[in-house]
Design brief:
heterodimer; A: 228 residues; alpha/beta; Rossmann fold; nine-stranded mixed beta sheet; 24% helix; globular; B: 80 residues; alpha+beta; Mth169, Chain: A; three-stranded antiparallel beta sheet; elongated; ATP-binding (chain A); phosphoribosylformylglycinamidine synthase activity (chain A)
């Protein structure tokens, strides 16, 4: 699996996610600086977490309109898979790669902790190494992770099975364990072809026992297995 | 030409920052304060003399960057 990890000024999780990819796929990703005009031909594009452009205006707004993101959007529309985590999710939502938007956490505080996630669908490139309904534990670290979409969009997401992950408690109850106020406890969504996944939690930070857990690893294993 | 753009959250979208501002005002002795909604104010200098053209360009700027129309409304005001 050939992959590219985008790096904007202020991105800070690129080496974490590159390490997770390398451990699962056995190949180092290309690190692509936002100012580089050429995005290599790859099987997976990753938009990593951080604080691109200092979160000016709105989180992800500046990065969303950079030339490299136009190229990412064009590739995504041709079906190239995109994994967008945390600030990457905010960027992807801003550019319309995935529906909805990430707002300031309802309690206004930065949240940095491990959370429980319910895997809503195992029918995707990203989640086929999980069981639907499985509860996994991965960290979150954000101030703007409060997912919002209008009623029509939510209905479409639910009807088409585009909700990838929901926050829950350890028993899988998705009316509990919401760390940021996200509507319907949504933690991650797919685009309508399920080739783009945007999620606030950091699976890359749960890929080694030494990190405190390995529940994020199946996501990278799934990509490595699907995109050979 | 100078323009002012006001970006506000749509009605029905929860505004936790506005709520926190309201709570702080209550604590400071302003119990008359009810619902508070906060937003952004952006002032722009434009190299343009035609008001209609300026407005339509500003509208495009708002839709492309200044506002996220999923959750935000915007209002454009031309000054001088």
């Amino acid at each position: 699996m050939k992959s590219a990890v985008l790096v904007f000024p202020g991105t800070n999780r690129e080496t974490d996610i590159a390490g997770a990819i390398e451990r699962s796929a056995g190949i180092k990703p290309h690190m692509v600086w936002h100012g580089d005009s050429d995005l290599p031909k790859v099987d997976l594009i990753v938009v990593a977490g951080g604080f691109s452009y200092g979160d000016y205006l709105r989180c992800g707004a500046m990065a969303a309109h950079s030339p490299i993101m136009r190229e990412v959007k064009a590739r995504a529309e041709k079906g190239v898979p995109v994994l967008a985590v945390c600030n990457g999710f905010q960027i992807a939502a801003e550019i319309g790669l995935v529906p909805g938007v990430l707002m300031r956490n309802a309690h206004l505080q930065f949240v940095c902790s491990d959370v429980n996630l319910k895997v809503e669908s195992s029918q995707s490139l990203f989640t086929h190494r999980y069981q639907a309904g499985q509860v996994i534990r991965v960290p979150v670290a954000h101030a703007e992770g409060n997912y919002f979409a209008d009623d029509d969009t939510l209905k479409r997401l639910e009807d088409r099975g585009q909700v990838a992950f929901r926050y829950c408690d350890s028993t899988g109850d998705v009316t509990a364990g919401n760390p940021n106020g996200s509507i319907r406890n949504i933690a991650g969504v797919f685009n309508d072809t399920k080739t783009v996944l945007g999620m606030m939690p950091h699976p890359e930070n749960a890929t080694e026992a030494l990190f405190g857990g390995t529940d994020g690893k199946p996501l990278f294993d799934a990509l490595a297995a699907a995109l050979v | 030409m100078k323009a002012r753009v006001h970006v506000t959250l749509k009605t029905g979208v929860l505004d936790p920052q506005g709520k926190a501002i309201g709570n702080a005002l209550h604590r400071l002795g302003f119990p008359e304060v009810g619902d508070v909604r906060q937003g952004k104010f952006i002032e722009l200098e434009l190299a343009e003399t035609d008001a209609d053209r300026a407005k339509s360009r500003l509208d495009e700027m708002c839709r492309k960057l200044l506002a996220n129309t999923v959750i935000e409304n915007y209002r454009i005001e031309l000054v001088s």
